[in-house]
Amino acid sequence: MKIHIKNTQEIAAMRVAGRLASEVLDFITPYVKPGVTTEELDRLCHDYMVNIQQTIPAPLNYCPPGYTPYPKSICTSVNHQVCHGIPGSKTLKNGDIVNLDITVIKDGFHGDTSRMFVVGEGSKQATRLCQITFESMWIGIEQVKPEAFLGDIGFAIQSYAENAGYSVVREFCGHGIGKEFHEDPQVLHYGRKGTGIKLRPGMIFTIEPMINAGKKEIRQLADGWTIVTADHSLSAQWEHTVLVTETGYEVLTQSEGCPSRPTL
Ligand code: MF3
Ligand code: CO
Ligand code: CO
Prior knowledge:
globular, 264 residues, 26% helix, three-stranded antiparallel β-sheet, 4 helices, binds 2-amino-4-trifluoromethylsulfanyl-butyric acid, four-stranded antiparallel β-sheet, binds cobalt (II) ion, Creatine Amidinohydrolase, 24% strand, alpha+beta
């Protein structure tokens, strides 16, 4: 495992990439309404990234070992879809929940962030799942400081989500990020305090818990990408890219429209 500690210049570039990724979500927010298709959201984001921001949509043709190239520019995961949902002709309807996951490349550096959206009026259960998942991401972020352990993050997220009656997806995790989309370390969203590597200033990684209303087990669809809950229960995810500073953390994927830290 080779964890890259970012220098001052790299951190400055990651701040720019992070803000741009968050601004794509600000841009798309007013379009997330009943009747829109996920491929329309993809097209709008793609054009905004390429033509307005002059960023590269990192998902497009992304092809990790064992995968086929990802065919779109963003991920749109609806209801029981956990992550990596491929935009298509599916129309969003009142009460759906959808995660939009944006990764941009600017000047060679990646910014990766996702938010949940409740389409129209959501049920009480759907709204609570999105809120608890948001809070669980933030409780993970709050653990980040030099000398803390990676396992402290996972422990905090898992305790919070399970205490609310939900389960944590195990197969996908946060990740180091920089010149590469996915770098070391893996940031698990479950685990035990005091385990794993110690955090050091200059590390940059994502925290992106996937929380299921039902059981933790997942399945991959035949498209080779889309992950769904095995029991078809609702699933939610939020993601930020986070820098370890000398005294704590800095969230790099912030922008004007980004929901602020909840009171925990
Ligand atoms: N953005 C996702 C993450 O947070 C990865 C998506 S890979 C894709 O790590 F190819 F599906 F876009
Ligand atoms: Co990520
Ligand atoms: Co992401």
